[in-house]
Amino acid sequence: MSELRKDIISGRWVIIAAERSKRPDDFRPSPAEEKKREPASFCPFCAGNESKTPREVYALRKKGARPDRPGWLVRVVPNKFPALTRGLPPVPHEDGIFRWMNGVGVHEVVIETPDHDRELPDLPVYHIQHVLEAYKLRIISIEEEFQYKYVHVFKNKGREAGASLSHPHSQIVATPIIPKKVNEELYGCERLHRQHGECIVCRIIREETKLGDRLVLGNDHFCVVTPFAPRFPFEMRVYPLRHSPWYTRMSKTESLGLAKILKATLGKLKNILSDPPYNFYIHQGPNPNLVHEAWANLEKSFHWHIEIIPILTRVAGFEWGTGFYINPVPPETAASFLRPSP
Amino acid sequence: MSELRKDIISGRWVIIAAERSKRPDDFRPSPAEEKKREPASFCPFCAGNESKTPREVYALRKKGARPDRPGWLVRVVPNKFPALTRGLPPVPHEDGIFRWMNGVGVHEVVIETPDHDRELPDLPVYHIQHVLEAYKLRIISIEEEFQYKYVHVFKNKGREAGASLSHPHSQIVATPIIPKKVNEELYGCERLHRQHGECIVCRIIREETKLGDRLVLGNDHFCVVTPFAPRFPFEMRVYPLRHSPWYTRMSKTESLGLAKILKATLGKLKNILSDPPYNFYIHQGPNPNLVHEAWANLEKSFHWHIEIIPILTRVAGFEWGTGFYINPVPPETAASFLRPSP
Description:
alpha+beta, 27% helix
């Protein structure tokens, strides 16, 4: 089992996933060795290879298809090399200046399609909606296990974005602690809610829609903007127009709207920036089965959303050391390239 | 001039360096175009090409050599494409939910050697000490301009670590605000100083030296450890044994000790991990000409140090979204590989 360790100065947690490590060579394979690791001929996520993954925990199947057999559209399986594994609620240990706990959590893979070569924006809208609904069902199910305070859904597309397999997939990691970045947003939104008397994201949506120069796309339920202070070139936020802290409270009509806008946005990224590697992730409120006391105002102050980061620049010594980011592309320029031409 | 913009929710600042941006292709050049950008035959940092950089602000020269001419050992020049530029103390602007100020600051390049192919650990100890002394002199000089609250010194080695030129160099960026990560450490150290009645880094050094399993190297003035909760495989910290918040207070004897231990540490990295890309940066107290009131306890609570990050894994959607890091190499394993064999 991996270990969660806390840096006492910054309060940052890390997951030490020991079992993966062997010799120094393993951490810096030669290009030839890297190639050997993922033979193009075999992919455990392709239809027909279901027996090569752990048994599925969810699948949307065609009528008559059987579990762990071909005939599925979207399939969710436990990660074969999990960063965190299910277990009893972890006991925090403290020994002098050191803090740690068992790496208890959940790590699943959402295989978005049986087709190895069709990326998310290439799929029909109804299929993307199935993927989004799969996220929702898994989050709800995991949140019923009370020890997981936060469920993080994210996608790494492309090797430079951290994907180790090229078959289209996303990941779900549930943690026994609320992540630092989510906490920062929760606190920030609560403070700004007190200050402005309304949800800050609702206000951002209103102002960005009025200004228009950072607005990329919009429909009845969602809008996409490049944020005012983005860390990365062409970074984007997808905001639901209806205020809600939780992704899981999204209606079917809304998830259809999200599928449409995601298809358009990721399609834009692919066409305009020559199919770059990217990450996206959902930021939402912590497990609603747990938060009522700690976050009394959460329901009003926090607004779930998706953040999309194309990988076009490299994070370096300046960023790692300061937490500042140098972004060579103003978000207004990025939005003007990404917006549909009039 | 670039612009500093603040994300109101997280409090994070970004530098929008607009003048660098042109067309979307510029942000995702083809491999052929990338190659074209840095012709192997020409390097502005090599001896003889002094006229291709802005005029030097510091150089350690051989006797009789003239400024901006060959004959130097270490040379510091303004960055030709600066992220921040010198100017009047920036006025913070606020318009509704948007916060920004002019991108005022300093951005310099420390050319570590005239020799294109000799990396830091390949240089003799006395030469590395010259580089470290150059950092010191430039920091002191920049700190005399009162509008810069923090001077950040860092090195990007290798393209994957963000270096755009391969000639050995480091960078200095002075900012009008104390960076978020430095602030987090300042607050963390102050809190822990109150709690423990001593500098937390002094305590970490004492405990790590006693335990020994994360200790990599040590001499009379410095030690190198893999931290208890490292974000990255083989991440290291270089700690001065004498408590001090400021790099610039280092004596000549101490900078010799630092040169020796840096040569050994970076040499280890090169040999054991097949010359990986890496970043290092100094974390020190803010501009001592400014901080006396805001950080009354800083002198006692903060302990300057260097953080070294080899680039062996990729930061992905999990890390970006949570601020957690998944590290496949326990620091005890990393230290055992890096330690000199008995």
